[in-house]
Design goal:
The chain has 148 residues and is an all-alpha fold. It contains four helices and no strands.
């Protein structure tokens, strides 16, 4: 695995076989529908490819963060799998949820604020680094042109 940014190695370990086995298991799980969330399936298909390309590595994960930065604070349906005491259990769960909703919304909204600020900080730092790299590359090119 010399073309990746990390290597697996130990005496008696066949890293190519391990990676091949992982890819086969992921493909089989996708065919079986184990990854019902489209984002999970997309991540499984593209992770190894993006790990190989260091230039796009950070951009890819920043895009993933943008997609998943905020916690969904919408109501959800409450279901009960057990048939015995189904209606009373659902009623109890709904009552508990109504009593706790105020507190969980406050925590979720605060978490969303923190997540958004952290993402903004990461994007700002990455943007500044990219600008600095571009200016340094331009300066190096200019200095190389001046050399005899």
């Amino acid at each position: 695995m010399s073309d990746s940014i990390f290597t697996i190695g130990a005496e008696g370990v066949n890293s190519a076989a391990i990676v091949d086995d992982i890819r086969k298991k992921v493909a089989a799980n996708m065919e079986l529908g184990v990854y019902t969330d489209v984002r999970v399936a997309r991540a499984e298909r593209t992770n190894l490819a993006n790990l190989k390309d260091e230039d796009n590595f950070l951009a890819f994960y920043l895009e993933c963060l943008r997609d998943a930065v905020f916690v969904d604070i919408n109501d959800f349906d409450i279901h009960e799998q057990r048939s015995k005491f189904n209606k009373p259990l659902v009623l109890l769960k709904k009552t508990i949820w109504k009593m706790l909703k105020f507190y969980t919304y406050r925590m979720w909204s605060q978490q969303n604020q923190v997540n958004g600020l952290l993402l903004s900080a990461l994007e700002s730092g990455e943007s500044k680094n990219q600008e600095k790299i571009k200016s340094l590359e331009a300066r190096i090119a200019m200095l190389e042109e001046k050399l005899p």
